[in-house]
Design brief:
single chain, 76 residues, mainly beta, four-stranded antiparallel sheet, extended
Length: 76
């Protein structure tokens, strides 16, 4: 989250896109209805604090139509 540079209230990201593999451009909008300032920020990877030793990929989420549902039996 970022604060509005004009009124210092919270601003929310409306949309974003990657400029590079380590930098994202974010379009922000102030949540103060009396301000409503829209502005652009950049989010950039700077450095790692701790790196994992062995990175394993996670399986992808199932397709929307193949999602498994829960079946709850009534009790009570």
């Amino acid at each position: 989250m970022m604060n509005c540079p004009l009124c210092q209230q919270a601003a929310h990201t409306r949309t974003s896109f990657y400029v590079s593999s380590t930098t994202k451009e974010r379009y922000q909008q102030c949540t103060n209805i009396n301000c409503g300032h829209t502005f652009i920020t950049m989010e950039t990877f700077v450095r790692s604090i701790v790196k994992p030793q062995n990175v394993q990929s996670a399986p992808p989420h199932p397709a929307k139509n193949a999602q498994v549902g829960f079946c709850f039996e009534g009790g009570g």
